[in-house]
Every structure is written in C-alpha cells, then in structure tokens.
Amino acid sequence: MVSANSAGSDRIHAVVNEISELGGSGQAARHSVAGHEDVLAAMQANAASALSGPEKDRPDIEPHREPRLFLRLPPSRAARSRPPPR
Fold it and tell me: Where are the domains of the chain?
C-alpha cells in the first residue's frame, strides 16, 4: 500500500527533475546563442575590413538591372469599341 506522503514525494521529485532538465536546456541555449553571436561579430568584422580595403582589391561587381522596354502597342479593335472608363 502506498501512502499519500509517498505519492506526494514522488510528484515533488518528478517536478524537481523537470525543473533541472529545463535549467540545463536553458543553459545550453544560452551557450548556443553566445556562440552564434561570436560568429556573427567575426563575420561583421571581416566584412567591415574587406569594405575598408583599397579600391584595387575590391571585385568589379555591377548591380543587376532589368532592361526597360517602353513599347506602345496600337489598341486592339475590342479596346477601341469599348466605352471609356468612368
């Protein structure tokens, strides 16, 4: 026969174990975020130093531009037969 105190004690131990696991997960997440922040800071420092270098060291990269086409097509017969919009 299990007493009420024993059942309550088991519940408390289960809750304590869950809290411990959550604490460990939170600590692991903090370490992961700190590592990612270090990597991002290093990448930003490298990008800044690359941009501040002499012009001759920079690659010639032209931005992509779509060609502009301005074509005037004659209106179709259907368009001419419709009344103008109000």
Answer: 1-52
Concatenating the DSSP letter of every residue in 16-61 gives HHHHHHHHHHHHHHHHHHHHHHHHHHHHHHHHHHHHTS-GGGS---
Average per-residue pLDDT for the chain: 78
Q: Residues 12-40, buried b or exposed e (16+ Cβ, 10 A)?
A: eeeeeeeeeeeeeeeeeeeeeeeeeeeee
pLDDT per residue over 58-69, tens digit each? 666 777 777 776
Cα distances (angstroms) measured from residue 55 to each of 37, 46, 60: 30, 16, 10
Dump pLDDT digits (tens) for 1-13.
456 678 889 999 9
**How far is Cα 36 from Cα 65, in angstroms, rounded to an integer?**
35
